[in-house]
């Protein structure tokens, strides 16, 4: 049962990890990366807790549009990353690190945690304790987001703008995958 929980936690943390890497590639500073990782951890915890406590009642209200919300938000952020890659040169990017505004934190928090709501519905069946399970999801998301940012920064230093474009495409791909999976189900 605990291995199942670990795999669920890893699965829902991947979007947040990818976004953190993308933001680090764009030049986000360590304090902003910390805020981003904390936001992701809190949103993953809160959404999975909401799913576990509210279960099917919550999902019923959002099931028709959750995939569209995730797709729209991730496509918007990914598209913005690609646009930024083409609109600024390397020297300009290095001299002006990216700051992360509250509105972006909240948008990314929602976009990356919608799946956690659905995962939360399954948590009571694991019989491991709702707060233990949701806490693990939140903490693991936080840690993996920090690691994703570290890896993104290294890749950004090595590959420059092309890795930022790839990061934007990955976010759009995650959103598209979410949309296609829900539409084909």
Q: Mind explaining what this structure looks like?
A:
By secondary structure, the chain is an all-alpha fold. It has one domain. Helix content is 89%, strand content 0%. The protein has seven helices and no strands. The radius of gyration is 16 Å and the shape is globular. It starts with a helix and ends with a helix. The model has no long low-confidence stretch (mean pLDDT 81).
What is the number of E strands? 0
Please give the share of residues in helix: over 70%
Uncertain residue segments: none
Class based on secondary structure composition and strand pairing: mainly alpha
Radius of gyration: 16 Å
What would the average pLDDT be, to the nearest integer?
A: 81
Shape: globular
N-to-C CA distance: 27 Å
Our estimate of the beta-strand percent is under 5%
Give the oligomeric state of the chains in this entry, treating copies of one chain as homo and distinct chains as hetero.
single chain
Number of helices: 7
Major sheet: size, sense and barrel closure?
none
Q: How many domains make up the 3D coordinates? A: 1
Q: Output the helix-strand order.
A: HHHHHHH
């Amino acid at each position: 049962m605990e291995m199942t929980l670990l795999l669920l936690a890893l699965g829902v943390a991947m979007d947040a990890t990818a976004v953190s890497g993308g933001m680090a590639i764009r030049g986000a500073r360590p304090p902003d990366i910390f805020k981003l990782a904390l936001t992701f951890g809190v949103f993953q915890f809160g959404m999975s807790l909401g799913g576990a406590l509210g279960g099917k009642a919550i999902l019923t209200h959002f099931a028709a549009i959750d995939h569209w919300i995730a797709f729209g938000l991730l496509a918007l952020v990914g598209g913005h990353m690609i646009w930024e890659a083409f609109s600024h040169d390397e020297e300009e990017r290095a001299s002006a690190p990216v700051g992360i505004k509250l509105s972006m934190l909240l948008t990314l928090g929602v976009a990356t945690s919608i799946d956690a709501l659905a995962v939360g519905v399954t948590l009571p069946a694991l019989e491991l304790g709702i707060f233990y399970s949701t806490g693990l999801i939140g903490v693991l998301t936080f840690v993996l987001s920090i690691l994703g940012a570290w890896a993104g920064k290294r890749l950004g230093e090595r590959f420059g703008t092309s890795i930022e474009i790839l990061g934007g495409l990955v976010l759009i791909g995650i959103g598209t995958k979410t949309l296609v999976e829900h539409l084909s189900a």
